[in-house]
Amino acid sequence: MATSAHTTARRVAPIVISTWSFGPVANAAAWPILASGGSSLDAVVAGATAVEDDPTVDSVGVGGFPDASGHVSLDACVMQAPDRCGGVCYLRHYAGAARLARAVMDKTIHVLLAGDGAEAFAQRQGFTPHPTHLLTPEARAAWEAWRTTHDPSEAGQREGVLPPMNVEERYRDARATPSDKFRHAPGAREGNHDTVCLLGIDHTGVLSGCVTTSGLGFKVPGRVGDSPIIGHGLYVDQTAGAAAATGNGELIMGVCGSFLAVELMRAGRTPLEACLAVLDRIISSYAIMPQHQVALIALAPDGRWGAASLKPGFSCCITTPAGQHQHDAQHVMAPRFTS
Ligand code: ASP
Fold first, then answer.
1. Ligand 1 centre and the CA of 129: distance in Å?
2. Which of 22-36, 185-199, 322-336 is modeled with the greatest confidence?
3. Could you give the angle at the alpha carbon of 248 between the alpha carbons of 244 and 253, nearest 5°?
4. How far is the CA of 321 from the centre of ligand 1 (A)?
5. Residue whose CA is closest, atom 7 of ligand 1?
6. Ligand 1 centre and the CA of 227: distance in Å?
């Protein structure tokens, strides 16, 4: 099929960039595909799937924290070009959201399938329902601790409670490793977000992106964030570049964060400048609260990349033929506990 993803192919060194401290898990699955001449689409979906399938990651796939009613729901999308994109959202009984998003792109005429319809499609694609509906005992325990300690009156006249911090901040504040995360005292006020976003270029120069998440922990049931929505959580254009976002989805959605970053690259900004400009737009558009965090990664068609966040604590993992490193991204605002 002749697509705009493939008509602009060019030769550059392969690269994959992915978000947060679980980036190395993603890149460990994605890089061998790129290194052996495989496609960037296969690579980013494999990387996303590796994080989804890791039950110790409590913000993506199986093991993700549930919504306020105790049900986990997954969102994901993939993109190569405006005519090559697909997503799923509000998937509650099936794992493999990234692979299913790709199936929506490859096997339907649509871009986004939601809820029951997405699950019926999953069944037709041969996916089997997850035995515990994506909920692990650890995620259930975290939800029960949250339920007994959160104060619904915090929400005021609007439903929904912001997670007080993201996963990275939680580990740092507790001086704990990811494997220590459930040792926190019951009742600790914890909520979370953090999405794995991957952007990659293969040996033919084709750009692909994939984003997958369980969304904000303890969200209002039915809530879908930026991650599965093309232009918000992810945007890819073979000429201008690719960008993906993570953090409080509501702040990303109001400015079409990933689309805006790609359009800024199209207008001549570097990937880093584009990420910083999107964050500036967010700062000027919202009353930023201490709990808020937004981070972006961006990749130009020639392999230049950038990453930036509102607050400290965001890192991403970059793998190229020269090696792999974890990059602490530049931030534009003070840490959450200072003003
Ligand atoms: N952006 C995701 C959401 O709002 C969460 C995250 O990336 O931390 O659902």
1. 24
2. 22-36
3. 65
4. 30
5. 246
6. 6
Instruction: Tell me the best of 20, 162, 166, 195 to mutate to test the pocket of ligand 1, counting ligand atoms within 8 Å of each CB and taking the most.
Output: 195
Amino acid identity, residue 62?
V
pLDDT in tens, 129-176: 998 889 999 999 989 998 888 776 666 667 787 765 555 555 554 434
Neighbours of 8 (CB within 10 A): 15
**Within a domain: residue 164?**
no
Please give the backbone phi and psi of residue 252, each rounded to the nearest 5 degrees, phi first.
Answer: -80, -35
Q: Which residues approach ligand 1 with their CB closer than 6 A? A: 193-195, 213, 215-216, 225-227, 246-249
* Shortest-distance Cα residue to atom 8 of ligand 1: 194
Share of the chain above pLDDT 70, in %: 85
C-beta separation of 78 from 208 below 8 A: yes
Q: Whose C-alpha lies nearest to ligand 1, atom 9?
A: 215
Ligand 1 center from residue 48 Cα (angstroms): 15
Query: What was the pLDDT predicted at 219?
Result: 92
| Closest among 184, 183, 211 to 199, alpha carbons compared | 211
Q: Is 168 part of a structural domain of the chain?
A: no
Burial of 211 (0-12, 13-18, 19+ CB in 10 A): buried
Predicted confidence (pLDDT) per residue in 29-53, tens digit: 999 999 999 999 999 999 999 999 9
Instruction: List the domain range (segments joined by +) for residue 62.
Output: 15-133+190-337
Instruction: Note whether residue 160 is domain-resident.
Output: no
Catalytic residues: 195
To the nearest whole percent, how much of the chain has pLDDT over 90? 73
Angle between helices 23-35 and 40-52 (to 10 degrees): 150
Which of 52-66, 108-122, 141-155, 271-285 is predicted with the least confidence, judged by mean pLDDT?
Answer: 141-155
Count of structural domains within the chain: 1
Q: What is the CATH number of the domain that holds 84?
A: 3.60.20.30
**Residue 208 within any structural domain of the chain:** yes
pTM above 0.85, yes or no: yes
pLDDT at 252 over 90: yes
Index of the ligand 1 atom closest to the CA of residue 252: 1
